[in-house]
Write a structure and sequence with these properties.
single chain, 256 residues, alpha+beta, Fructose-1,6-Bisphosphatase, Chain A, domain 1, D-Maltodextrin-Binding Protein, domain 2, 2 domains, seven-stranded mixed β-sheet, five-stranded mixed β-sheet, 7 helices, 14 strands
Length: 256
């Protein structure tokens, strides 16, 4: 299946829905503890669901705001209306709108929209990764490599920090630059362009992970778990590397 109809729907509606709400004053509230939600999150997700249901009335959803308890089954859309809400709430323009479609027991389609740079990333399983309709791979970026490691999830809410701390030590001792942008979708998109050399998170929400995972795979990045096996939905740890050499270094660093 080529999922062209689904992709065309997202290309048309995601930037449009975002632009509709962009000029409005956002209201910020807290779902639990310090977990932020804005009126923009709610507007984008509800309107995306509306246009998807109009086109595909039998599809189901697993999404951050309205369908947190949705089941992953064939034709399930995973939606994160603002991935990087904490950044968005304080006008730090490091966030994306991201969607993935799960079908035929696998990730089938991903779409990531980065408003700040007007970048649209997408991937269809088996058909490659694209940025603004130009095919990309992790080896396409010709800029000088600074060897960058990006991570998300190193917070007080996350009690398991062992791998983060081992990777931090690895980065410092090996002169690898560290970045923590606060948006998994954006960081995996940048990794898919070949900008980041490595990435790690132990965040598990599928609406956070799924769009970037498929994009990175189709951009020929190595996406794996703590055992070095191909990452599977439900794994506790997600690693990405640009090539086998960096994969080996990451795995070696967490075993020490």
């Amino acid at each position: 299946m080529n999922y062209q109809k689904e992709l065309d729907l997202l290309k048309l509606h995601v930037p449009k829905i975002y632009s509709e709400v962009e000029s409005k004053n956002k209201e910020v509230s807290f779902k639990s503890g310090d977990e932020i939600v804005t009126t923009t999150d709610l507007y984008i997700e509800s309107n995306l669901i509306k246009v998807i249901i109009e086109a595909f009335p039998t599809d189901t959803f697993l999404s951050e705001e309205f369908h947190k308890d949705g089941l992953l089954q064939n034709r399930t859309w995973m939606i994160d209306p603002i991935d990087g809400t904490s950044n968005y709430a304080v006008d730090l323009n490091l966030y994306v709108v991201q969607i993935a479609l799960y079908d035929q027991n696998d990730l089938a389609l991903s779409f990531i929209y980065y408003p700040r740079d007007n970048k649209t990333y997408y991937a269809i399983k088996g058909h490659g990764a694209y940025l603004n309709d130009q095919r990309i791979t992790v080896t396409d970026n010709k800029k000088p490599s600074n060897k960058m490691l990006s991570m998300v999830g190193y917070t007080i809410r996350n009690s398991e920090k062992t791998i983060y701390e081992k990777l931090l030590h690895y980065a410092v001792t090996e002169n690898i630059k560290l970045r923590m942008l606060g948006s998994i979708g954006l960081e995996l998109a940048l990794a898919s362009e070949g900008i980041f050399t490595m990435f790690y998170t132990n965040v598990k929400n599928l609406w956070d992970l799924a769009p970037g995972v498929l994009l990175a795979r189709e951009a020929r990045a190595l996406v794996f778990n703590e055992k070095g096996k191909d990452y599977q939905i439900g794994d506790s740890h997600l690693f990405l590397s640009k090539n086998e050499a960096f994969k080996a270094k990451m795995l070696e660093s967490i075993l020490k």
